[in-house]
Design goal:
The complex is a heterodimer of chains A (278) and B (645). Chain A is 22% helix and 14% strand. Chain A is an alpha+beta fold and 278 residues long. Chain A starts with 13 loop residues before the first strand and ends in a 6-residue tail after the last helix. Helix content of chain B is 34%, strand content 19%. Classes of the chains: A alpha+beta (278), B alpha/beta (645).
Chain lengths: 278, 645
Amino acid sequence: MEEKKIEIKMKRKWGMAIDLDKCTGCGKCSVACNQENNMPIFEDDSDVPKRVAFLELMKVTNDKNAKFPDVKTAYLPKMCMQCEGNDSGKHKADPPCVSVCPAVATDVGDDGVVSQIWSRCIGCRYCQAACPYEARVFNWWKPEYEGSFKKSLNTDVSVASRGTIVKCTFCSHIWKRERDAATAKGILDINAVMYTPACAAICPTGAIVFGDLNDHESEVSKLTTSNRAMRLTNSIDDIKDPEKKKALLNKKQFANPKVYYLTSQSWLRDMMRFKKNS
Amino acid sequence: MKKIERKDFLKLGGGAVLGGLSGWVFSGAPFLGFQWLAEWTQDQYVPVKGFEKYVQAVSDSCPAGCKVSVRMIGERAVKIESKDGVCPACHNALQLTYHPERISTPLKRKGDKGDGKFVPVTWEEAIKEISSKMNSLITEGKANSIAAINKNESLNGQLMEKFIKAAGSNNVYYEPSLKSLTSSALGGYINYDFANTDYVLSFGAKLVEGWGSSADMQKVFTQWKSKGTKIVQADTVCSMTASLASEWVPVKPGTEAVLAFGIANYLITGKRLNSTGEEFGKWSQLIINKFPLAKVASYTGVSEERIKQIGDEFSKAKNPVAVSGKGAHGVNASSAEIIAVYCLNTLVKSRAASLMTNSSVSYKGEFAGLDSFIKDGNFSMLFLNNSDPVYKSVLGEELKKKMEKAFVVSINPIMNDSANYADIILPSLSFLESETPENKTVVSNFKESKDAKDIIIALSKSIDKTKDAFSFTNGIDSFKVTGKETASGAKFSFNVDKIKNDIDALDKKFAANAEYPLFMIPVEAPLVGDGDGLAFPYVLKSIDPTVFYKGKLLVQINRETGKKYGLSENESIVIRSTRGKLDKVYVHLTDTVAPDTVAMPLGFGHESYTVYGSKKGVNPKKIMAADVDPLTGTADWWSTRVKIS
């Protein structure tokens, strides 16, 4: 009997769009992320550079360039930007963190998710240094869950050991979970399964939208092409001339993130491009 | 000197090596080394596996009744999800349910009050002790010295109110909330029809940051955004609500009420509008004479043209609504302010604000409100139903002193500042452990803890006078008798005589004060709110470094003001008011705060709120203004005159 070969070609490229005009800074995304991803527990988590959290609820204001009352405040939920890297067609796409990892603990899959395997990480922290977004965090201490807090741990995310780098993976374990559930029903095409990461699922104002960037009909694709959309990148995005852009892309280590921010507020756009307000 | 032989040299060397070795062994270093080796090389804790399922639950401990879907792995709850929106407290219920410092059995005080020393007792012993004390008070004719303070108007709060009233006492109080404040100022709380309004004028209400029913307000905000509802926010700091509003009206600290007077003044004199409320004539004379636009402009810092412009837009909108209640989770407003803002609604005949009452919740005891009760009331027995007035009230220190002389019973799942002064602590549940008519419990009760509803019913059955207060023996049946919300029949009145003195006092409040030149106003961090969130580690993870950084609590001060006082970033300062001082606060200079204002984060400085919530920063309520409002019976703490050094 001839074995039936199932060839699966990945169709999805997961991406996210965060509408800052809708974000009220309620912090639900942060709590949902912590619950879903088994964030370690500390008595005092106020040392921010050493805080282990995948999603940072960044408070930003334009108060350096504006005086009261011409000021504005916004919250910017910041997670791993899931960079696609500078793919000029010659080799595989490489985000800044992947190319420096000596242990193959991090890689970018053809679904667009930059993965990280905690148990494979040797803790050299090269990727943390390479990441332009400070999205990677290092477990300086053993992740502990005092007493009964252990009971709320999710079985889908492994608990990291001390001395390893951890990061947001777009909750891709939820996709695997959904795929397993689909397989149990007899659906073998992985592209038929959609999912929503914890932060996007809980967002009460619908500010965080998640979906497939390859599907031009998806909500996230439509949002990323809106004129309010922008990415946390340097000015390459703003260059209109395609030739010049291509030349720069080939030269520089360009992160090319898949998380888009939407805002109509010019101060926020300028701040995200590291431009000073005029 | 004796010559050192080779043998001696070897002996000495060997001795040194041996001594060093034994020292190293006894120092514990090798054992620590082995421990580290084990930790670094061996796998970490593996969560217990089990079947996945989703269980639906409705919260009976929050007044909004959040509906959530809980992801279960076996018998463990691992995630709280919600399609309808969830309030921060219910979203954090996992960490309350599985908190390592949950109270597992009834506790009895051992040692002095405030020492935090308790010994476990059985439920029978605890109930017996409470009932004998309460029975003797009732037979002595001192029933009115029994009092209760509820956290909120959820079902167990309503049962507590019924129980205490059946015992013959009128002293049932609620922690000040939007509903309790507006009920006592207006005769009913306000039901806002936000979905159908096209113009929202908010007087410091941080609408999207936890104000009112926080989950619903997030939905309302998206509706406003999609419909293009105009939101005008009067605020002293650039809060999220101010930043997301269509217009932000920056006002000087604590002058929201004066702005409302000014707009009302313009609508009455300039637009010839009038209200149907009782004593409107008296009220309008008062504010027209006392608050001409020029004076309002100088107090609030909002120009006369701007006040007129807001008045014009507000009166021309199709369905405008004015919103009072400054703050997010911790709200505060004087009755004059609530009445002044509600007056604007009656002037434009707003259809989006109507007064309601609840048949089971009175919000009014023998004294007008919680703070007037703490100040003037006396009690020999006090029930705390999940409330924390010692921490949350500006008169917490006074309450502590009175609690030391009384018999205090606290019903709560984890320790808090007030329970620390209790004689008996009865452990209650998180909402995941309690049963509702629609849903079974999500997880089983933690050790010996019981549902607050069952505790209150059991207490009432154990006391002769209140035996028949409830027709049921089980908390689950109490859902049938939950209070009905009805449109308030009471006529809205301006109550001029009662608040006239407070309005007169405003002149003194805003006059230049050389000794206390600055105003301190509260701000809230997301999830921390007014302090309830701080016991949960996942809340600590969300705190911005401009609020609390490396164990230091930062207050926000305007750059210019900072320059005037020679302050630099992260500098330690002392804040003084007439009521005391706060030290160990640090400066964060930012122009998001009005000049001459100290924006102080609420929610920090707990004394005894688990290891996660305690001893972090300071509690500003200790030095905040404590003038008690005659109608709401709540201290008007929002803006406090302070000096810094």
